[in-house]
Amino acid sequence: MKRLRLWRFGFIVLIILATQLAFAQQPVFRIGVLEGASGSITRGAQMAVEEINNAGGVRGADGTFFRLELIVQSTNGGANLDTAVANINQANTIAVLGPQTNSEALGGLGQLQGLNVPVLTPATNDSILLTDTTDRLFRSRAAQILQGQALALYLVNDQNLRSIAVVQLDVESTDNVVGFSSSLQALGVSPQTLLLQSRVTDLVTTLVQSNPQVAVVYGDGQLASELFTLLRQSGWAGRLAYDQANSPDFAPLVPVTLRSGLLSTTSWPYTATDASSDQFLAGYVRMFGLIPDAIAAASYDSVKLLAAAIGQPGDLQTNLRSLDNVQGVQGMLRPAQLSAGETSNNVAVIRINEYGVPQVAARYAGGVKVEGGQLPPSTFATATAVPTATPDGVVATVTGRPFQNVRSGPSIQFEVLGQLNEGETVRVLGASRGNTWVVIDFRGRQGWMSAGIMDIFGDLNTVPIVDSPPTPTPASTATPAPPQEADIVIESASVSPSPIIVGQNFSTNVVVRNRGNSNAGHFAIAATFPPNNVYTAADIPGLAAGQAVTTTLNGTLSNTGFYTVIIVADLNNEVAEGPGEGNNSAFTLSYGVDKPIIRQTTAALNPGDTLDLEGNGVQGDVNWNGSGSGAKLDALFGAKLGIIPNVTLETVHWDLINVGIINQSTISRTSMNQNTIIGVITADGNRGVLRVDNIPGDQLQVTLRVYQN
C-alpha cells in the first residue's frame, strides 16, 4: 500500500511538471489594446483571452496551440496615442484593438496604419474605413450609418410614423444626421431638419409649434439634455430619440421620468435575452462585477474573430476579411459579405423604460429585421483542452536583457541580492506605490525588481502595496567606489529634413554617450520608425568612458503624420552596463512626416471673391458667396471641400486631406468657427487646407496651405 501511495504521488508530480513544461513551451500571440486597463475594450478582450487560454489556447493552421496575451497601452483620450502606438509597435503584436472614439481613430489614422497589423476599432464614424488606404483597419461593430438606417426602419415601418423632425446640435454630428435623413428619404419620408443656430429655447419653440410625431436629436450631450428637459417641461408629448441615450454627458443630466420612452440605437444591448448575450453578460459580471456595454461586447467579438482567423492558413489580415457566419455576442459576424473592413451589421433599437433601463424594441442585421428581436443561440467553438497556459495571479518575466538585478528595496540605492536571468518568470507578491517596483520572494527574502523593464502579466492593482524599507545609510568611514560598468545612453537626436518628406531619404543624427566608468566595446543602436515600421540601425565599434559619438540612422517613409519613436541604445545588450541596462529604451524622438508645401499664406475674401490656392492663376478653387448666416464657401471647377475635425494647422497633414471626407461642394458659414480646418482638393488636383482665422461681418479671413502631390 505504501509503495502504491508513493507511485501515485510520483505520478501526480509528473503531471504537475508536464503541465509547467507545457506552459513554458507554449508559444504566444500578443494583441495590443489602445486603452487603459479599466476600459471596456480591455475588459471585453481580457474576458475572451481568458476563455481561450483556459480552453488550451488558440489553434493555428498547423495544429500548434498558442496562448494569447494583451499588451495594454492607454492613449489618455488620444493625448498619448503616439507613445501608445510606439510601445505596441515594439511588442511584436499580431493585431490591435482600439482606439474607442471617432476623434482618436480619425486623428490617429496614420499612426494606426503604421502599426502594419490589423486594427479593430469600435469607432462608428462612417468616414474611418473610407479614409483607410491600407485595408488594415476593421470596424468591430455596426457603423453609424447602419444605426441610423435601423432607427429609420423602426420609426417608419414598425411605428408608422411619417412626421419626423431631425435636430442637429453641432457640426460634429453632420455625418450621423446625413445618414439618418438619407435612410428616411429612401423610405419615402422627407424629414423636417432643424439646426441649432444660437439658443436651445428657439429649437423648443419651433418643435412645439410644428409638433412632429417624433424628434430625432443628434449632437452634444449637454445640449441634448437641455433640449429634452425643456421640451418635456413645455408639455410637448411627442416621441424623442437620441443616438447617445446612455452617454455620461446626457443620461445623468435628465431625470429618469423624462427619459422614459426615449428611443436610441446600439450595436449591442445588455438587456438582450438571446443565449449569446446571456452567456456574455453573466461571464462579464462574474469576472468584473460590472455590466458590460456595447464596446466590451465588440472587443470580445474581435478577439473571437482573431482566434478564428489564426486557425486559417494564410496571413491574418486576409483571413479576417474572409471570415463568414461567425457567431458573436452582437449577432452573426460576416466580414466576407460586408464592405471592406466591416465585421458586424447588427443593430438594436432600444427604448428606455421607467427605471432608466434600455429595453430591446427591435433588432436588425444589415437593414433586415430579426423577427422576435432576438438572435440565434451561441455556437462559439472552443479549442481542445490542454493544460492551461494562464498563470495564476500576477507574474513578471525578465525580457530583453541577459539578467536583471534583484534588490533589497525599490531603488538602485539598495543592495543587489542577486539576479534573475532572461526568460525567468516569478510570482509578484506586492508592488510599490505607483507600481514602479514589484516585490518577489527571492531565496526566502523580500526582493524588489524594477517593473518598467519587465513583462508584467496580470493587474498590478490587485496585489498589496508594500512600503519601502528604510533607505540604507552608507558608512561614514568609507566612500563607495563608483560603479565600474559602462552606461550607453542616447543623449540627443534630430531628424533632417524636418518635417521628413514622404518618399525622400531622411537622416536621424543621434548623439550616443558612454556615461559609465568603463570603456565599451562594440554595440549597436536602432529604431523602428512609424508609420511604415522602417527599421534602421547603426554599429558603433566602441566608446570610451565619458566620450560621445554622433551616428546616423537613415530611412524613407511613405505616409504622413506626427509620430514618436524609441531609439534603443545597446540594441543586443552587448555591453555590460549593470543598472544602466534599464535606460536602453529611455530615449523617445518626436517627428513629423509630410508632403512638400507649394504655398502658404493668408487671404481675406469678401462676398463674390474667388481664391486660387496654388496662386498660379490657372483657375480658382473656392468662391465666398452670400451674407450673414446664409454665407457659404463654394467649390469651383471640380474642387472638393470638407471640414477636418480635431486638428489644427500645426497638426494637419497630407494624408488627412483624404477624398473620403473631402467630398462636399459647399461649406456653410454656420458650420465655421474660428480655427475650423477645411480640407480642399483643388481644381488642379492638389490637397490643401484653409484655417478660418476670423469672419468679421461678411468677410472670410483664412490662412491657406497647399501641398505638392
- Give the number of domains: 5
Q: Tell me what portion of residues adopts beta-strand conformation.
A: 25-35%
Global mean pLDDT:
86
From the N-terminal CA to the C-terminal CA, the straight-line distance is 86 Å
CATH superfamily of the largest domain: Response regulator
The number of helices is 14
How many β strands by DSSP? 41
Q: Output the structural class.
A: alpha+beta
CATH topology of the largest domain: Rossmann fold
Instruction: Point out poorly predicted stretches.
Output: 1-24, 374-392, 475-479
The residue fraction in helices comes out at: 10-25%
CATH architecture of the largest domain: 3-Layer(aba) Sandwich
What topology, given as strand order, has the largest sheet?
2-3-1-4-5-6
General form: globular
Give keywords.
709 residues, alpha+beta, Rossmann fold, SH3 type barrels, six-stranded mixed β-sheet, 14 helices, 41 strands, 30% strand
Q: How would you characterize the overall build of this protein?
A:
The strands form 12 sheets. The protein has a 6-stranded mixed β-sheet with strand order 2-3-1-4-5-6. Strands 33-41-40-39-37 form a 5-stranded antiparallel β-sheet, with no helix packed on it. The radius of gyration is 29 Å and the shape is globular. It folds into 5 domains: 26-141 and 275-334, Response regulator (Rossmann fold), CATH 3.40.50.2300; 144-266, Rossmann fold, CATH 3.40.50; 395-462, Roll (SH3 type barrels), CATH 2.30.30.40; 488-594, Sandwich (Immunoglobulin-like); 597-707. It is α+β, with helices and mostly antiparallel strands. The protein contains 14 helices and 41 strands. Residues 1-24, 374-392 and 475-479 have low confidence and may be disordered.
